[in-house]
Amino acid sequence: MASPGAPMSVKQSLLDKGAQLMQSLKPIGQMQQHACTFAFHSHDMSRQIEAHHYVARVNQDILQCVVYDSDEPEARLIGMEYIVSDRIFETLDEDEQKLWHSHAYEVKSALWVSPRIPEVLAKLELANFTKIYGKFWCTWQIDRGDVLPLGVPSLMISAQAVDVAQVDQEKIMRRDDKYNMSIDALKQGRVEMAEPEWINPNADHWKQAGKGFVLEIEPTEMNAFAPFP
C-alpha cells in the first residue's frame, strides 16, 4: 500500500543528510527501546493492527511512545501511546481513566515483546509493565487501507482475555517468524511474573461497559484574536 507522492530526489536526500549532521535531534535520541504488540480499535475489535512502539522515558513513572506499523526504514508513523505507572493513573479523574487500558494481560500473554532482546533481559523491564496503563491514539488507519493519515484519531485498546484468541493468529505467526520467537514459549516463561493485586476498573472501560469511544469533528466558533498590548 503505497502513499501518494514522488520518489525522494537526490537533492532532498543530501539536504536531509546535511541537516541530520548539523542539527540536534535530542528528543529522538531518547527513544531507547523498541516493543512490538497488537492493538484494537476501541469501537471495533474486528479491526486490529501490529504496533511497533519506540519508547522514551520521561521519568520513572511516565513513558512516551511513537508508534509505527513496522520496524522497517519505510515504516509509517501511525500514532502515539502515553504510558503511566499505577501511581500516576490513580491521580486521574474517572472520565480520563476510561480512555486508558491496562497492560497486565498484554505482558503476561507475551503479546508485548521486545524484538531481538534476550527474554531474560526483557523481563527485567517487563516486571513493572504489568502495573502500568496506556492511552494509545491511532492517527493513520492503515488497516482500512488509508494511504494518508485521514480523519480523526482512533482510540486503541489491548487484548484483555484469558488467552490470545482475540488476536489474529496469522499476525502473531508472522511476528514470531520474523523475530524467531514463540509466543507460547514466552508466555510460559512469564507465568511466574507478578500480577498487580488490583487493576482499576475504570481502565479497559470497553470491557466494563461494552462500548468504545469515537471522536467526531464539530465546527465551533474561533476565539477572536486579541493583539498584544
From TrEMBL:
InterPro entries: OBAP-like. This is Uncharacterized protein. It comes from the Eukaryota. Belongs to the OBAP family. It holds the Pfam family DUF1264.
